[in-house]
Amino acid sequence: MKRWSAIPVLLLAAALSLGGCSRREDLSKRAIVTAVAVSRKEDGGYKVRTESLSHLGSEEKSWESRTGTGETFAQAVTNLELAAGKSLYLDGCRVLLLDGFADRGELETLLEEIDSHGGVRPLTLVAISPGLSALPEEDEQEESAGEMIFSLLAGRELTQVNLKDCLNLLETPGRGLLIPMVEREKGETQVSGYLSPGSIGLLKVPAGRLLPFAEPETERVYTTVGEGYSADWVLEKSAIKLRPRVEEGEVSFLLEAKVEGYLLSGRGEIGGEKLLHEAQEDICRQLLEEYAYVLEKIARASGNDLFSMGKHLELMEGKTWQQVGEDWEERLPEIPVELRGSVLLRDKKRIDRQS
Question: At residue 13, does pLDDT exceed 50?
C-alpha cells in the first residue's frame, strides 16, 4: 500500500514543479502595461503606444514607452510584442487614451475593437489625448505617466469614465456621455476639457463651463461679483432633479438645479443679510445661465443627451418612451426644457459664532 500511494504524490510534486517553472518563465517574458494610447490613422490603421514596467525593484521602479502600428488594434499589439520580445500584459492597464477619430461612429468602432480584443479590462478609465500628448514617447522614465493620469481622473464624477461606460452609453439612446480630455503641456498633465460625442457631431467643451455637473472632490471656493459687492463662497453640494412631462402626446421636461454652500466673506457697499440675499440671487442667476449654456451649446448642439432625459422618460413614462425612443436623438434638440434654480447659502461668521 505504501509503494502504490507514493506514486500519486510523486506525480503531483512533478506537476507542481513543472507548473512553477512555466509560470516564472512566462512572467519574465511579459510586459506589465500601465497605460495604452490608441490613435486612429488617416489611412484607417492604428498607432498604439504603451507604457509598461521596465524595472520592478524593492525600492524603485522604472517605466518604458513603446509605439507600434497595425491595420487593426490587435495587429498593432502583436507588432509591439514582436518588437519588444515580450507579451503585453494589458490586464494591468489603468488608463486608455484615444485620439484620431472623426465622428461618433469611428469612436464607437474603435472602442468595440479594443473591447473585442479582450486584453483591456472594461473598468479601465478612458480619456481623450490629442496627439497622444499625455503619454510621452520616451524609452525610459522614472515616473509613470499612466499612474499620474489615473490619479487625475479617478474619484470624480465628470472624469471617471471607463470603457464599459463608453460602450453602454454610446449604444443606448437616452443617455449622455462626456469623455475627459487630458493634455500634457510644459511638463504638466491636466484635464483641459471634455468631448461631447453626440449624434450631430463631436464637440469640445471647455472645462470651466461645466459648473452645473460639478460635485467637487473637495470644497471649492467661488467668487461672485454683484452690484456694489463681491462675495467669496464655498460650494458644498450641487444637484439636479429632472421630471418629464407628457401632455397630449407632447414631451417636455422640468429641470431643477440646487446649490448649497456657505458665505466666507463679502466686500463692498452692502453687508449682512442684504449681501447674503443678493449673493444668493446672483448665484442662482449664474447657475441657470450655466445650465442654459450646457443645454443649448453642448447637449443640443452635439445631439448628446447629457442630462439623460431619455432615460428619465423611459423610467417614468414607459409607454411614451416606446413611442419616441427609437428616434430620440433626432427629437432631442427640439424637446422643451423649463429651468428652475435654488441657492441656499449659510453665513459662516454666524455659524462660527454659534459654535
Answer: no
